[in-house]
Amino acid sequence: MTEANFVYVTYIATTPEKVFQALTEGPVTRQYWGLENVSDWKPGSAWKHQAGDGSGARIVGKVLESNPPNRLVITWATPDDAGKPSRVSFVIERLDEMVRLTVTHEELELGSGMDRGIREGWPRVLSSLKSFLETGKPLDTWAGRK
Fold first, then answer.
1. pLDDT reading at 146 higher than 70
2. pTM of the model
3. Nearest partner of 107 among 22, 1, 28, 27, judged by Cα
4. Quick one: which of 39, 37, 40, 17 has its CA closest to 29?
5. What CATH number corresponds to the domain at position 8?
6. In whole angstroms, what is the distance from residue 27 CA to residue 10 CA?
7. Structural domain total, the chain
8. Which of 42-46, 100-104, 113-117 is least confident?
9. What range does the domain containing 106 cover?
10. Distance of alpha carbon 8 from alpha carbon 6, whole angstroms
């Protein structure tokens, strides 16, 4: 198996605390992503990406590292493929009046459905996150895919 990595960097006019909150608090996540990220965000804890009513986990994993508001590392897999997770790191750095958010998705199987999906998904989600934090209005994250 050949592995692939994906890195996305964006700059957001906000604080590290607000970015971390937007990544980890389900009601906030739902506003720009459409689904909620749910966990206690402690290393070793499970996390899931699910519908707001608690049903239909789309992505599951474990929290590997949590250092609010600067770093979060999680595993990432579909519920039916939880034995072969990839790894996502969120690095949040303050730069004067803005934040540099670097998302690195590693240990993907090159050419897999997950690899193809995140290459379209992360830019959409992170663009919506940026818009949401800067203007209060998210993008229609999944426009053209519904």
1. no
2. 0.94
3. 1
4. 37
5. 3.30.530.20
6. 22
7. 1
8. 113-117
9. 3-135
10. 7
